[in-house]
Amino acid sequence: MVINACATSGLCQAMPIAVNSGHHHGSFAKARAPLRWRPLGRLTRAVEPLRICSVEGRPLLRRVLPIRAASTVPTPIPPSPDYSVEEGAPTPLGPSMTDGVGVNFAVFSEHATAVTLCLLVGWEEEVREFPMHRTGNYWHSVVCGLPGSNVRYSYRVFGEGGWDTGNRWSPESYLLDPYAPLVASRPKYGEGGAWGGAEGWWGTFDLDSPAFDWGADYQKPNIPFQDLIVYEVAVRGFTAHESSKLGPLSGSYLGLASKIEHLKELGVNAVELLPVHEFDEMEFQRSKNARDHMVNTWGYSTINFFAPMTRYAADGGGAVAARNEFKEMVRLLHNNGIEVLLDVVYNHTAEGGDDDPYLISMRGFDNKVYYMVNTSSYVQLMNYSGCGNTVNCNHPVVAQLIVDSLKHWVEEYHVDGFRFDLASILCRGQDGAVLKDPPLIRAITKDPVLSKVKLISEPWDCGGDGYLVGQFPNWDIWGEWNGKYRDSARSFLKGSDGAKKEFASRLSGSADIYNYNNRKPYHSINFITAHDGFTLYDLVAYNEKHNEANGEGGRDGANDNLSWNCGWEGHTDNANINGLRQRQMKNMMTALLVSQGTPMIVSGDEYGHTRDGNNNAYGHDNWMTQFQWDRLERKRDHLFRFVSGLVHFRKNHKLLGMTHFLSVSSNATRLLTCV
Fold it and tell me: Is 421 marked active-site?
């Protein structure tokens, strides 16, 4: 189909669109605001004028907008017949090449009344808008002649019904495709401001480049679950500190890959990466608040489930570079016998709650489908995550989105498994009730691809009925973060009364929790510390949390840490106290690495990293969360050598990673036949 330019002096007719009416809060305007221009991606209460053209009688909308903020309305640019649009296909979702035609775009929205596709080709500064066709609940069009790369795209979604209906329509906003394979946004970490910066949050793709070359001799490590020794690490935090001496590679995927020799010397054989899905590290700076001095450095605030974090590309390389460099990191880790597990956040997104909405993607596409909503409540979004919203994981469309995302990371990026943040939410039905047989967990477990990778749940959430340690639906293949191991080990090693019996159970594989059906000791993921909470050193140096730097008056973070400061709160020059702390850290590492089950070590604990007692350091992109390579060197012949020796000892003694639980009749012969 050919795009027809509008008549009358080469310009299009301007037509304002009414603001969605209804009961609104936050970023939703109740009354019409004056028409004005805005930078891409920034939510406003204004509605821009649209330029009307036609595609064989159907309107084609086109807005002329500056990429960055402008103080005046730009001069209208007449449309040009560069591309034509055809109906396309409703599958696959996201952008895909059609043989010899162009790029097909498909999205889901059950309750929308109209959807338009918005394109920015190359570095042009005008937004081309194309109407989408509807098949059932799927919207689709193919843009003929569109290149397979160097294109940014988003959607505008129209619908009926205001706040009281559970819908959150905002047709004036550009929405990020939930299936976008890459995200084009501000390129450098911590720069450019909130709301995606001047660039906004747009999908992009690269359908032209040849497939990534994994190498002729490449193969995945395929380490048996019972042999895993997991190292929890943040991509940025691992090499962002100046002592990494990596220059432009610091804080990047390639930066992590450049430190593989450290991982090998330590002896771990799997890295569990804190979230690498695209997230907005600047989200706290959207408005004046108690946390606006912080940066979300851990990344538990996803905005897209398919795209690797763009700003983890080296030196601001952008979305395509992030994709390629992530793959190169995985390739190098695999070639050195180290598996890659991803900490994934499917329980909530960065779009916030009804009290502080952050419209980016799914909220504007179909709020009632993608999120758990209770329309009888004033604040309608249910909040089992503690982050304002809860993804409606067991809605069939949302469950398929999550399965497709997981398979994308396995098949496209070759990851070896996943740790599911607040996984109890994945077990909740659309009304919030915990399900015994959640469809999403069943779909993941029965999938021929996903059933063959490591699956690990964090079996709790912020709901009172969501603590599922030992009860998470597992089909005998899921592992679990064993929170009871953490609590028991801490209690015993600080000398709490009555802690010996339970610690003995944890040390021997937590059979009282996991020995049923065909579950194994290695399904217990044992840990004493994790990314949140005290570090190993702080666990023996502080009785109380010290979270003043977080700006919330010390109200955030856990109050009961089961810690012991060895006689002095915080740092001290007392040699006896410091000696006791070193012995306590060694005791904890020894217990962890000789226990039956799968051990997890937190990055930095191998040298005694401290956050000065802050047990909720998610918002500090500084020494608190950054691996200090200079401190490692000072501790190399002390704590690091001890921990590394323990890791290698465990790897060399298979009895410490048994595949069957101990029994009363166990003897040496039986033990040897169990491995």
Answer: yes
